[in-house]
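Practice problem: predict the structure.
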Amino acid sequence: MKKIWTRRILCAALLLGMLGTVALAAGAQGTQSNPLVTLSYINEQVIPDLLKQVEAKIAKHEKEAVPGQEAAFRKVEVKAGKSVELSAGAQVVLRSGKATSKDLLTDLTDAIGLTGTGELVENHLYLATADGQKITAGEKVTLMILGGYTAQ
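Answer:
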Protein backbone atom coordinates (compact mmCIF):
# COMPACT_ATOMS: atom_id res chain seq x y z
CA MET A 1 0.00 0.00 0.00
CA LYS A 2 2.94 2.28 0.79
CA LYS A 3 4.27 1.89 -2.79
CA ILE A 4 0.96 3.09 -4.33
CA TRP A 5 0.98 6.30 -2.26
CA THR A 6 4.62 6.90 -3.06
CA ARG A 7 3.94 6.55 -6.79
CA ARG A 8 0.93 8.86 -6.59
CA ILE A 9 2.90 11.52 -4.74
CA LEU A 10 5.78 11.26 -7.25
CA CYS A 11 3.36 11.51 -10.22
CA ALA A 12 1.63 14.52 -8.67
CA ALA A 13 4.96 16.23 -7.97
CA LEU A 14 6.14 15.55 -11.51
CA LEU A 15 2.87 16.88 -12.96
CA LEU A 16 3.04 20.03 -10.83
CA GLY A 17 6.66 20.56 -11.88
CA MET A 18 5.78 20.29 -15.58
CA LEU A 19 2.83 22.65 -15.24
CA GLY A 20 5.00 25.15 -13.37
CA THR A 21 7.66 25.02 -16.10
CA VAL A 22 5.07 25.56 -18.85
CA ALA A 23 3.50 28.46 -16.94
CA LEU A 24 6.88 30.15 -16.49
CA ALA A 25 7.77 29.69 -20.16
CA ALA A 26 4.40 31.02 -21.31
CA GLY A 27 4.51 33.96 -18.92
CA ALA A 28 7.91 35.12 -20.18
CA GLN A 29 6.79 35.39 -23.83
CA GLY A 30 5.09 38.46 -25.19
CA THR A 31 5.39 40.76 -22.20
CA GLN A 32 5.38 44.51 -22.61
CA SER A 33 9.12 44.65 -22.00
CA ASN A 34 9.78 41.71 -24.37
CA PRO A 35 7.05 41.61 -27.04
CA LEU A 36 6.92 38.91 -29.68
CA VAL A 37 6.25 41.53 -32.40
CA THR A 38 6.72 45.26 -31.95
CA LEU A 39 4.04 47.77 -32.86
CA SER A 40 6.50 49.72 -35.00
CA TYR A 41 7.20 46.58 -37.06
CA ILE A 42 3.49 46.12 -37.69
CA ASN A 43 2.97 49.81 -38.58
CA GLU A 44 6.08 50.18 -40.74
CA GLN A 45 6.34 46.77 -42.42
CA VAL A 46 3.27 44.59 -42.18
CA ILE A 47 0.49 47.09 -42.89
CA PRO A 48 2.15 48.80 -45.92
CA ASP A 49 3.02 45.42 -47.46
CA LEU A 50 -0.52 44.18 -46.89
CA LEU A 51 -2.02 47.33 -48.45
CA LYS A 52 0.21 46.96 -51.53
CA GLN A 53 -0.93 43.37 -51.99
CA VAL A 54 -4.60 44.34 -51.64
CA GLU A 55 -4.28 47.24 -54.12
CA ALA A 56 -2.52 44.99 -56.63
CA LYS A 57 -5.28 42.37 -56.38
CA ILE A 58 -8.00 45.00 -56.76
CA ALA A 59 -6.31 46.44 -59.86
CA LYS A 60 -5.95 42.94 -61.32
CA HIS A 61 -9.63 42.12 -60.74
CA GLU A 62 -10.76 45.44 -62.24
CA LYS A 63 -8.77 44.74 -65.41
CA GLU A 64 -10.20 41.22 -65.64
CA ALA A 65 -13.77 42.37 -64.99
CA VAL A 66 -13.90 44.91 -67.84
CA PRO A 67 -10.91 44.46 -70.16
CA GLY A 68 -9.82 47.68 -71.86
CA GLN A 69 -12.49 49.78 -70.15
CA GLU A 70 -12.83 51.89 -67.05
CA ALA A 71 -14.44 50.17 -64.08
CA ALA A 72 -16.59 53.17 -63.10
CA PHE A 73 -18.90 55.66 -64.80
CA ARG A 74 -17.27 58.95 -65.78
CA LYS A 75 -19.05 62.28 -65.92
CA VAL A 76 -18.75 63.80 -69.40
CA GLU A 77 -20.11 67.23 -70.32
CA VAL A 78 -20.74 67.92 -74.02
CA LYS A 79 -21.40 71.37 -75.48
CA ALA A 80 -24.32 72.02 -77.86
CA GLY A 81 -23.62 70.73 -81.38
CA LYS A 82 -20.70 68.55 -80.27
CA SER A 83 -20.79 64.76 -80.12
CA VAL A 84 -19.35 61.76 -78.33
CA GLU A 85 -18.26 58.64 -80.21
CA LEU A 86 -18.69 55.41 -78.26
CA SER A 87 -16.83 52.13 -78.33
CA ALA A 88 -18.71 48.85 -78.56
CA GLY A 89 -20.04 47.84 -75.16
CA ALA A 90 -19.97 51.37 -73.73
CA GLN A 91 -22.87 52.28 -71.45
CA VAL A 92 -24.33 55.80 -71.31
CA VAL A 93 -26.82 57.57 -69.06
CA LEU A 94 -28.12 61.01 -70.07
CA ARG A 95 -28.22 62.99 -66.82
CA SER A 96 -29.26 66.42 -68.14
CA GLY A 97 -29.92 68.27 -71.40
CA LYS A 98 -31.15 67.03 -74.79
CA ALA A 99 -29.21 64.64 -76.99
CA THR A 100 -29.90 62.47 -80.02
CA SER A 101 -28.30 59.56 -81.81
CA LYS A 102 -28.78 58.41 -85.40
CA ASP A 103 -27.14 55.10 -84.50
CA LEU A 104 -28.96 52.12 -83.06
CA LEU A 105 -28.26 52.40 -79.32
CA THR A 106 -30.06 49.91 -77.11
CA ASP A 107 -32.19 51.41 -74.33
CA LEU A 108 -31.55 48.92 -71.53
CA THR A 109 -34.04 50.66 -69.24
CA ASP A 110 -36.99 49.94 -71.55
CA ALA A 111 -35.32 46.97 -73.30
CA ILE A 112 -35.82 48.45 -76.79
CA GLY A 113 -33.67 49.85 -79.57
CA LEU A 114 -33.50 53.62 -80.00
CA THR A 115 -35.91 54.48 -82.83
CA GLY A 116 -37.96 57.40 -84.18
CA THR A 117 -36.32 60.76 -83.54
CA GLY A 118 -33.36 59.12 -81.84
CA GLU A 119 -33.82 61.35 -78.81
CA LEU A 120 -32.30 60.02 -75.61
CA VAL A 121 -34.41 59.99 -72.45
CA GLU A 122 -32.94 61.32 -69.21
CA ASN A 123 -31.80 58.70 -66.68
CA HIS A 124 -32.13 55.80 -69.12
CA LEU A 125 -29.21 53.41 -69.57
CA TYR A 126 -28.09 53.00 -73.19
CA LEU A 127 -25.68 50.44 -74.66
CA ALA A 128 -23.49 51.01 -77.72
CA THR A 129 -23.66 47.82 -79.76
CA ALA A 130 -20.82 48.73 -82.18
CA ASP A 131 -17.78 50.97 -82.38
CA GLY A 132 -18.29 54.50 -83.67
CA GLN A 133 -21.86 55.07 -82.51
CA LYS A 134 -22.38 58.78 -81.80
CA ILE A 135 -24.45 60.86 -79.43
CA THR A 136 -24.92 64.50 -80.46
CA ALA A 137 -25.83 67.22 -77.96
CA GLY A 138 -28.75 69.49 -78.93
CA GLU A 139 -27.88 71.67 -75.98
CA LYS A 140 -25.27 71.30 -73.25
CA VAL A 141 -25.62 67.77 -71.85
CA THR A 142 -24.17 65.79 -68.99
CA LEU A 143 -23.56 62.11 -69.67
CA MET A 144 -22.34 59.33 -67.43
CA ILE A 145 -20.25 56.92 -69.53
CA LEU A 146 -18.85 53.50 -68.62
CA GLY A 147 -16.45 52.22 -71.26
CA GLY A 148 -14.55 53.66 -74.17
CA TYR A 149 -15.50 56.97 -75.80
CA THR A 150 -14.04 59.91 -77.69
CA ALA A 151 -15.37 63.45 -77.25
CA GLN A 152 -15.49 65.39 -80.53
